[in-house]
Amino acid sequence: MNRLFKTSLLVAAMIPAVAVATPVAGDREVTLSGAGSSDKSFDDTVFSVQGSWGTYLDESSMWGVRQTVNARDSEEESVQFDGSTRVFYDYHFGSGKARPFVGVSVGGVYGEEVDETFMGGPELGIKYWVQDKTFITAMAEYQFLFKSAPPPAALLTRGAMNVDGHVNVDARGDLTCGARDGTWSTGATAVNGPADVYGADGNGTPNQSVGPGVTDVKQLVADSAFSPFVLKSGDLDGLKAMAKANGTYWSGTAVQTLTFNSGNKLPNGIIFVDTVSGDNIDKNGPNTTSPGDFANITIQGNAEGDPSGVFSGMIVVAGNLNISGSLHMRGIVYAVGTLALAVGGSGQIDGAVITQNIRNASATTVDPAAASTSINFNCGHASNPGGQMPQTFTVQPGSYREVSGS
Fold first, then answer.
1. Which runs of consecutive H residues, i.e. helices, occur in 193-324?
2. Which residues contact 139 (CB under 8 A, 6 or more apart)?
3. Which candidate, 13, 15, 18, 27, places its Cα nearest to that of 60?
4. In which region does residue 252 sit, left (phi positive, over 0), alpha (psi from -120 to 50) or beta (all else)?
5. Which has more confidence, 13 or 353?
6. Which of 25, 61, 185, 387 is most buried (CB neighbours < 10 A)?
7. What value does the mean pLDDT take over residues 254-266?
């Protein structure tokens, strides 16, 4: 995840040369900046270093390479690193001491706490020359993260899955992301009773599980293939921040048994129900979080807070989720623990449902007891849950830069 650090550390880097306040073609620019923060007990410390190299094409335009490295050191956890590398192009305006600029960057983000992906977007800032070859700059980047392709199926689970009852899982209705399977599981999937699962395999026969291509029920998927669709610690931290800003974050003892219903509705946006402690599950290694710290959430009927009767957004539960009532939503349901969907009335989820099943303690169960429940893959709602996911806006740490001449 991209981070905004609270404290800036300014460092200068130079190439011996002579330059003037208005650069000319061939002038080079080297920068180095750093920032960091820690809690009061120094148990959780983060640090970031960013550097760049660029060369002017003429007095207004330049291109270069920018590198960022982030490190996080938490108590009882090894240091985690992530970084990004971008190529940028900036165009500067004016010729005085203050020169605003706009530009674009494209590159990739990678590391231990993030999903590796491409990114790109616009940037803007201003440079103010304090000496002939020295200036101070402030810059902001608006980054679009080109994440892994949207989920490969309408319903995904790590481990085994039972699909029973009056449920229709369908990936045929939206092919804008390409053909998708109906379900994915790393264990075996059993489809029983009146349940129907349709992948975008080009035929109208449900519940098939054949071949290496697109199918209705794809089971025994390799864990390495499933892992790109698992939210990493950095992803969860970013979603928590969004939910806190939106007033849709829950933690503490209340989440041991928290119910959403007609009296406690789900407002649109990023819903994040965290663990009791607020720590990510197993952040210190496999099976290090007590099951007593897991959230246990139930969604009953009429829980949609929007007047339309449809919830738009993303529901993330750091624990176990039971959807026992009719739920109409556009977006993504993500359970770190287990998922049980036993709707008593009709419901519809347009987007995708993902169960990480982090302990793999029991099979994911989709077994509506009455009426008809639909889980329909929708590329737009799975890529940007219900249209509620903001793009990442990052203010870069302050820096002190010098321009060098050729």
1. 223-226, 233-246
2. 123, 124, 125, 396, 399
3. 27
4. left
5. 353
6. 185
7. 94
Cβ-contact 154, 377 below 8 angstroms: yes
Phi, psi (rounded to 5 degrees) for 80: -105, 135
Residue 74 near residue 90, CB atoms below 8 Å = no
Vertex 172: Cα angle to 298 and 157 (nearest 5): 40
What does the DSSP 8-state code read for residue 304? B
DSSP 8-state symbol, 194 = T
Tell me the pLDDT band of 43, cut-offs 50, 70 and 90: low
CA dist 179 and 160 (Å) reads: 23
pTM, two decimals, is: 0.67
Please say whether the dihedral angle defined by the alpha carbons of residues 375, 378, 383 and 388, taken in this order, is positive or negative. Answer: negative
Which of 103, 105, 71, 101 has the alpha carbon at shortest distance from 87?
105
pLDDT in tens, 114-159: 656 777 778 888 888 888 777 888 888 766 655 556 889 999 999 9
Whole-number CA gyration radius for the chain: 25
Closest of 389, 369, 370, 367 to residue 316, by C-alpha: 389
247 burial class (0-12, 13-18, 19+ CB within 10 angstroms)?
exposed
Distance CA 340, CA 293 (A): 19
Cβ contact 45:38 at 8 Å: yes
Whether residue 218 has pLDDT greater than 90 = yes
